[in-house]
Design goal:
Blueprint: H1 2-13, E1 38-41, E2 44-55, H2 58-69, E3 75-77, E4 96-97, E5 107-108, H3 109-122, E6 126-128, E7 134-136, E8 142-145, E9 149-159, E10 162-164, E11 184-185, H4 188-191, E12 201-205, H5 209-218, E13 224-228, H6 238-245, E14 250-253, E15 256-263, E16 269-276, E17 282-285, E18 289-292, E19 296-298, E20 329-331, H7 343-368
Parallel strand pairs: 2-3, 2-9, 3-6, 9-20, 11-18, 12-13, 12-18, 13-14
Antiparallel strand pairs: 1-2, 4-5, 7-8, 8-9, 10-19, 15-16, 16-17
Helix pairs in contact: 2-3, 2-7, 5-6
Length: 372
C-alpha cells in the first residue's frame, strides 16, 4: 500500500509537466539550465534528463541519492518484475538482512529496499515503475526506452544487477509448497549465519569455484556440508577443489541430482530426495539448508551488444572505476561485479558511478556551456 501511495503521489506531482505537443519546449531544451520537461507525443512521454538510472537495488538508489543531491534531477526506472524480480532487486527475495550497516537488529530485505527508494524520492529523484526495453547509445544524448517513455539523457547509469540461477524441482520455489527462504538460498555469505543453519547439516549444489567457496564458508556454521554435483568431476580451479576436498567437514556426493525438497512441521527444509545420475538409485539426505551455487545471469540482454561485456555477460568497466566502453555510460552493482555481489559493495559502486557521472557532465559542460 505504501508503494501504491508513493506511485500515485509521484504521478500527481509530475502531472504539471504534461502539456500538449504544440505548447511545450523541445525535449532538447538545455539540461544545464535544469529544464527537465515532459512532452507527450501520442502515447509516449518524451523526457529530458542529465542522468538516467536503470535499476532498483542499492547500486541504483545510491546513484540516485548522490546525483539528486548534486541537483541533476535524475530519472530512475525501477522496472516492473524485470528478470522476474520485483522492484528493489535481489534484496526483495531475502528475509532478514543482518550485514548491512546501520541496522544492528537486522532488517527485512523488502523493507530495506523501500527505505532506499524513500531516500531517493526525498532528494527529488523521479522514479518510474517501468521496465527499460532498450537503449540507443549510438547517439547523443543517449536514449532510453520503456513502453510509455523515451528519455534523452546525457549520462546513463546501468545498475540492473544479476539474477542467481536456481534449479526447478518440487519444493525449490516460493509459496506454500516451496522452501525458498525457508532453508533454500542462493547466497551462503548472505544467509549462512542464520540460526536455522547453525550446527545443522547443509548442502551446496554446484561444481565451480563459487560452490567450493560457499561450501567452505558454510563449514563455519553447519555441522557438516555436502556438495552435490551431477558429474564425477568439478570444473572449479584446482586450488579451490583442494580446499574443499581437504576440509574434514565437507563431503562430496558425486553424480547426483536433487529430485525434491521436503520440510518439517515448522515449514522449514529438512530433507532432499536425490537420484544418482549413473545408477538411477534414489536416496534421502537430511539437511536443514540447501544453497544453489550454479552461477548468476547479469541483466544485460537489453543492451543488445552496445557495451563491451565479458564472456559471462557482465559489463566490463575500467579497473577502479565504473566507466564502460562508451564515455558517459556507467555501470554499478552486480551487473559489473561477478566476485563480491553484496548489497554494500553494490551501494559503493553506485556512489562511484554517480560521482563519475557528475564529473563527466562537468567536463562536457565546460565544452558546451552547460553544467557550470
Amino acid at each position: 500500500m505504501t508503494r501504491i501511495r508513493l506511485l500515485l503521489g509521484l504521478r500527481k506531482a509530475f502531472s504539471v509537466f504534461r502539456k500538449t505537443p504544440s505548447s511545450v519546449p523541445s525535449v532538447q531544451s538545455s539540461v544545464g539550465e535544469r529544464q527537465m520537461g515532459t512532452t507527450t507525443t501520442g502515447e509516449v512521454d518524451l523526457m529530458r534528463a542529465a542522468t538516467c538510472i536503470v535499476g532498483s537495488g542499492p547500486a541504483a538508489h545510491t546513484a540516485a541519492i548522490y546525483t539528486a543531491r548534486a541537483e541533476l534531477k535524475p530519472i530512475l526506472f525501477e522496472g516492473w518484475m524485470a528478470n522476474g524480480i520485483a522492484p528493489g532487486g535481489q534484496l526483495t527475495t531475502t528475509t532478514d538482512v543482518e550485514n548491512f550497516p546501520g541496522f544492528p537488529q537486522g532488517i527485512m530485505g523488502m523493507e530495506l529496499t523501500e527505505k532506499f527508494k524513500e531516500q531517493s524520492l526525498r532528494f527529488g529523484t523521479r522514479v518510474f515503475t517501468e521496465t527499460v526495453l532498450r537503449l540507443d547509445l549510438s547517439i547523443r544524448p543517449f536514449r532510453v526506452y520503456t513502453d510509455a517513455k523515451q528519455v534523452d539523457a546525457d549520462t546513463v547509469i546501468i545498475a540492473t544487477g544479476a539474477v542467481a540461477k536456481r534449479l526447478d524441482f518440487p519444493g525449490a520455489g516460493e509459496g506454500e509448497d516451496g522452501f525458498w527462504n525457508r532453508g533454500i538460498s542462493a547466497c551462503a555469505v548472505c544467509d549462512g549465519a542464520a540460526p536455522i543453519f547453525r550446527n545443522r547439516p547443509l548442502a551446496v549444489i554446484g561444481g565451480g569455484d563459487s560452490a567450493m567457496e560457499e561450501a567452505n564458508f558454510l563449514t563455519k556454521y553447519g555441522s557438516k556440508v555436502y556438495i552435490i554435483h551431477r558429474r564425477d568431476a568439478f570444473r572449479a580451479s584446482k586450488i579451490m577443489q583442494k580446499r574443499a576436498l581437504d576440509n574434514p567437514k565437507i563431503e562430496v556426493i558425486w553424480n547426483t541430482e536433487v529430485l525434491k525438497a521436503s520440510g518439517n512441521a515448522r515449514g522449514l527444509l529438512n530433507r532432499l530426495n536425490l537420484r544418482n545420475t549413473v545408477t538411477g538409485e534414489v536416496s534421502v539426505l537430511e539437511v536443514s539448508g540447501l544453497f544453489f551455487a550454479i552461477g548468476h545471469e547479469p541483466a544485460t540482454k537489453f543492451l543488445e551488444g552496445q557495451l563491451e561485456l565479458d564472456s559471462d555477460g557482465y559489463i566490463v568497466t575500467k579497473p577502479g572505476t565504473t566507466h564502460t566502453s562508451i564515455p558517459g555510460v556507467f555501470a554499478a552493482g552486480d551487473v559489473q561485479d561477478k566476485k563480491w555481489r553484496q548489497a554494500i559493495t553494490a551501494a559503493g559502486t553506485g556512489c562511484m558511478a554517480a560521482l563519475e557521472a557528475e564529473h563527466y557532465l562537468q567536463e562536457i559542460g565546460g565544452q558546451e556551456g552547460k553544467y557550470s
